[in-house]
Amino acid sequence: MNQAVYESPLSSRYASDQMQYIFSPDKKFSTWRRLWIALARAEMELGLPVTQEQVDELTAHITDIDYELAAQKERELRHDVMAHIHTYGAQCPKAMPIIHLGATSCYVGDNTDVIIMREGLSLVRDKLVRVIHALSGFADKYKSLPTLGFTHFQAAQLVTVGKRATLWMNELLQDLGEVEYRISTLRLLGCKGTTGTQASFLELFEGDHEKCKELDRRIALEMGFEGTVPVSGQTYSRKVDAAVLATLSGIAQSACKFATDVRLLCHLKEVEEPFERSQIGSSAMPYKRNPMRCERICSLARYVIADAANPAYTAATQWFERTLDDSANKRISVPEAFLAVDAILNIYENVASGLVVHEKVIERHILEELPFMASENIMMDAVKRGGDRQQLHERIRVHSLEAGRNVKEFGLANNLIDLLVADPLFGMSREELLAHMEPAQYIGRCPEQVTEFLAGCVQPVLEAHLSVLSDEAVELKV
After folding, report:
1. CA 99 to chain centre
2. In a 3-state reduction of DSSP, which class is residue 394?
3. Residues in Cβ contact with 232 at an 8 Å cutoff, skipping those fewer than 6 apart
4. How many angstroms separate the CA atoms of 190 and 111, rounded?
5. CA distance 223 to 30
6. Averaged pLDDT score across all residues of the chain
7. Could you tell me which of 194, 193, 213 has the C-alpha nearest to residue 46?
8. Residue 53 half-sphere exposure, CB side, CA atoms within 13 Å?
9. Which of 12, 282, 299, 327 is catalytic?
């Protein structure tokens, strides 16, 4: 690494080697060559003056790209596609006359972008499945462990630790559905020409419209796609990029929600992200265990969410059949969104696989709030014993205010049960009142909801993607 030259932290610190290769120059330019071969082969098969020898020559040089010559040619020609045509032609002199025959630059540029985005989405899909798998084990393990539920970050009715995890997973399943939809609906641009009319190919095929359509079909088939876009200008609609990044933004939103919840739970000392033996939480405060990984998820997620505005603006400002103000922006915005989401999912899986639950702390927090939560059940029990519901309600209200004041103003323990024991209107012993203080009575259907969700929603997804699951731990760069 040249320390005197800027390098994106997404490459040096965060994204996986797999995702980096998908968006690497080598992947891009070798895909250009595959597209030129697909074009030449289809043109040959449809009767144009292209020979098998020329196709074979092109095929022999897909990956051995002379990048120095390509850079030299681009400096001379100020055109990246023409630079690579000349570079390819230098290696394939027999095929040089037919490389890029009838095509415009977007033939290689746009088709490659679609191919690369599809591969990137496939990797994202696999990582989403791995995160869901990690959370499913956590949810099942803690499906019956009561914990305080929060609304407005104020203590509310009890839930369970596992049930809360299903909320994170449910959003990821939505994201997975979006990713799979994007993968299934992506189409190549195909061979549409300079304004999308296929005029150059119609000329080459001497007015044969069917051969123009067949050319598109054969290229799509060779590149592994069901088809090409039905109509276009010179480019595929930039709404495609906007839709893909909106999907990535959705993943970032879900991950940020998870990471924020864990950060808050870490503050409460109830649940923590994994913390390694030699890890340092703070340079100044040695005792600290900051939720650094979840903070990193939130930080990268914020970048992706903001970055998703780029292709949206680009799509909105394209002129007629083609304008070039998309190019520089999409070279940056699309790859970096993928690299950032890749990093987010790497961290997410790492955290989800090693969450630490402090059950005694959770229990203490529950017991601090449970007397208030149990008050309705206590009131109903007292009514069954002959009490007046309205009088009992008022007494509990008064006692709850006093108990709350003791906690908030004097730092004392919650003494609501003591106050109710001493109130003759209730006529209940301490043991009878404490019988209402079992947390499991207040978690509703949480365990059953977790079991049903895992069986009905999660397990089918995991079974459909068994090949991407493994026991290997996720290794983070930093």
Report:
1. 38
2. helix
3. 189, 192, 196
4. 7
5. 13
6. 94
7. 213
8. 5
9. 282
Query: CA 175, CA 197: separation in Å to the nearest integer?
Result: 36
Reply yes or no on whether the pLDDT at 311 is more than 60: yes
The answer to whether 264 and 244 are in contact (CB under 8 A) is: no
Asked whether the beta carbons of 160 and 146 are under 8 A apart, the reply is yes
DSSP per-residue codes, 139-192? HHHTTT-EEEEEETTEEEEEEEHHHHHHHHHHHHHHHHHHHHHHHHH--B--S-
pLDDT of residue 412: 87
Q: 């449910």: which residue's tokens? A: 170
- Looking at 152, 184, 283, 470, which residue is catalytic? 152
203/325 Cα distance (integer angstroms): 30
Write the single-letter amino acid at 425: L
CB neighbour list of residue 1: distance below 8 Å, 6 or more residues apart: 7, 12
394: Cα separation from own chain's centroid = 50
Distance CA 346, CA 341 (A): 9
DSSP secondary structure letters along 58-121: HHTTSS---HHHHHHHHHHHS-HHHHHHHHHHHH-TTTGGGTTTT--HHHHHHHHHHHHHHHHH
Collapsing DSSP states into helix, strand and coil, what is residue 272? Answer: strand
Name residues whose C-beta falls within 8 Å of residue 93's C-beta, 6 or more positions apart in sequence.
Answer: none
Give pLDDT, residue 432.
Answer: 87
Q: Please check whether residue 19 is in contact with residue 122, taking contact to mean a CB–CB distance below 8 angstroms.
A: no
Using N-to-C axis directions, what is the helix angle for 105-141 and 161-185, rounded to 10°? 160
pLDDT in tens, 66-118: 999 999 999 999 999 999 999 999 999 999 999 999 999 999 999 999 999 99
Q: How many CB atoms lie within 10 A of CB 403?
A: 22
pLDDT tens column, 233-264: 999 999 999 999 999 999 999 999 999 999 99
- Here the tokens at position 360 are 């005694």
Residue 152 falls in the annotated catalytic set: yes
What are the structure tokens assigned to 262, written together? Answer: 């864990």
List residues bridging with 356 in a β-sheet.
272
User: What tokens does 476 get?
Assistant: 């983070």
